[in-house]
Amino acid sequence: MKTIRNFLLTFTCLISFSQLLNAQTDPAIERIIETGKTDNQAMQHLDILSNRFGGRLVGSDAYENAAEWAATKFREWGMEVEMDEAGSVPVGFNRGPWFGRMMGEESMHLHFVTPSYTSGTKGVQRGHVLAEPKTRAEFERMKGSLKGAWVLITGKSNGFPVDFSEKADLKRDSIISANEAAAGKKLPANSDKTSQPEYKPGDEPALFYREMKEAGILGIIQSAPVPLVALYDRKNIGNMTFENLPSTPDIKLDEHQYDIIHQMVKERRQVILEFDIRNHFKPGPVKYHNVIGIIRGSEFPDEYVIMGGHLDAFDVATGGVDNGSGASPSMEAARLIMQSGGKPRRSILVCLWAAEEFGLLGSQSWVDRNREKLPRISNMFNRDSGPLAPTSISVSEAMWKDMEAICEPLASINPDYPFNLKKREARARPLKPWGTDSGPFAVEGVPTLSFGLEDVKGLNFSYMEIWHTERDTYDKSIAEYQEHAAIITAVVVYGVANLDHLLPRDGYYLNE
Predict the structure, then answer these.
(1) pLDDT digits 0-9 by tens, 303-360
(2) What CATH code would you report for 106-185+193-269?
(3) What percent of the chain has pLDDT over 70?
(4) The pLDDT value given to residue 17
(5) How do residues 407-466 score in pLDDT, each as one tens digit?
(6) What is the pLDDT of residues 62-120, one digit of tens each?
(7) In what order do the strands lie in the sheet with 389-395?
(8) Is 272 exposed, middle or buried (0-12, 13-18, 19+ CB in 10 A)?
(9) Interatomic CA distance for residues 280 and 234, integer angstroms
(10) pLDDT at residue number 184
(11) Which residue, 89, 156, 234, 300, could crosslink 346 as a Cys pair with Cβ 3.0–4.6 Å?
(12) Contact criterion met (CB below 8 Å) for 48 and 330
């Protein structure tokens, strides 16, 4: 009996080893690599996302068009498609062209941006320039000159617009009242002034915002570091309707030009600025969707491997890096798998997430609505760190043998890009999502293995120079890295999907 048991155990191990070996010697892997080397279309997908659609903010026509196009490509490649409704915004926003210039004693073209979901101009608008008032007395003295003026406000732009909500107005009123009360206090004649604490007036950019708007200003202008960042009106968007849209342009001007203009205004020199800003809205609510391409599993269709990245992008540029550099290799990885004719055992979900830039809304919505699937997700691969080459992956001890076999073909793809498997120590499961779409999955205990990325060729790439800025364009992505990423992703995702078991979660998170 013992001999029979040992034989059965040995036979079972041989079958399992054979299945694992076959998973990695599947001819589909060779075809993925060959097609990826000779007909890689990652940059073609990025060209369309960045240069045909451009910035893809949820609520915009560009996002809706990009989502429909991605769904069409998935269907063209033979995949199932789910347009997964994930939420809506109360109004839509489309950005048109913009320009500005300084006229008068000196002239220059102005380098500026406006945050999304803020007002444009009413055609070309020209006006004089004033520095904002900081006390009631200053406001009263200059209120007659505010009509038709562009107003320089204090503070440095962080990409978000000035808050004009009722709560913000109350805060400003409180600061103004405190400043006036402090200014009105008089010390006794015989008091020691040096012993009195000096009162520093409170400040807030556009401190008299409501009053200046009522006085007829053309817009506000704030100093902005270069490269310029333009985000969206996160504090007011939830309360916007087509009847109460913002009406005062909020301009973020190159800090160097701001300083020149501010100095001229201090010297009471003639400064005339002219702007044409075409920010347009559309009635809502406007629904947004995650685009999910499905490669249905042949044996375990209700088990999953997820790969992808967010489809939305801020519209001050064209989303070529954040996150066209994640979405396009994921799309190409899906195409390579489909072109290979491979039949993965479990389902592959290629998820192009919506509204990541608005707070992971698309991925969080999916997690909330698909909790029964979470224990059956082998891994969630997310690409959202720029267009660098994947050169490693860190895996737990329990995953090591599976991932060692899956990653074995990667060394043969390109000798310039060696690939390393690294040991991953268990870490605590996060209590809150981190700042990309794998975050909501990690909170729920789903493994989120991701590739280590490197600038292998020393091209001096700097993600933070591009992230959320005007420089986020197609030409900042690195074609060689993007194409390599598509091949690596396809091979690894296909390999994980083709195992005869889910990747073990033992030791991935602490105490689990």
Answers:
(1) 999 999 999 999 999 999 999 999 999 999 999 999 999 999 999 999 999 999 999 9
(2) 3.50.30
(3) 92
(4) 44
(5) 999 988 999 999 999 999 999 999 999 999 999 999 999 999 999 999 999 999 999 999
(6) 999 999 999 999 999 999 999 999 999 999 999 999 999 999 888 999 999 999 999 99
(7) 420-423, 389-395, 451-454
(8) middle
(9) 17
(10) 73
(11) 300
(12) no
Answer for the pair 132, 207: CB distance below 8 angstroms, yes or no: yes
Q: Give the C-alpha separation, 304 to 258, whole Å.
A: 52
Q: What is the DSSP string of 212-233?
A: HHHHT--EEEEEEPSSPB--B-
Q: Is the Cβ–Cβ distance between 45 and 332 less than 8 Å?
A: yes
Q: Where are the beta strands (DSSP E) in 330-413?
A: 346-353, 377-382, 389-395
Element of type H or E holding 339: helix 324-340
Backbone angles phi, psi at 37, to 5 degrees: -80, -35
Would you state the pLDDT for residue 1? 44
Query: Which pLDDT band holds residue 161 (cuts at 50, 70, 90)?
Result: very high
Which one, of 329, 332, 336, lies nearest residue 481 by Cα?
A: 329
Query: pLDDT confidence of 512, banded at 50, 70, 90?
Result: confident
Do residues 391 and 419 touch, judged by C-beta distance below 8 A?
A: yes
Q: In the chain, what are the domain boundaries? A: 27-91+285-497, 106-185+193-269
Task: Estimate the crossing angle of helix 400-407 against helix 2-24, to 10 degrees.
Answer: 40
* C-alpha to C-alpha distance for 163 and 304, rounded to whole angstroms: 43
As a whole number of angstroms, the distance between CA 393 and CA 448 comes to 11
pLDDT at 181: 86
For residues 19 and 7, give the distance between their C-alpha atoms in angstroms, rounded to a whole number: 18
| 43: enclosing H helix or E strand | helix 42-47
Residue in the block written with tokens 């080893």: 17
DSSP 53: I
Pick the CATH number of 27-91+285-497 from 3.30.70.890, 3.40.630.10, 3.40.50.80, 3.40.50.150: 3.40.630.10
The CA-atom distances, in angstroms, between 89 and each of 232, 344, 484 are: 12, 37, 36
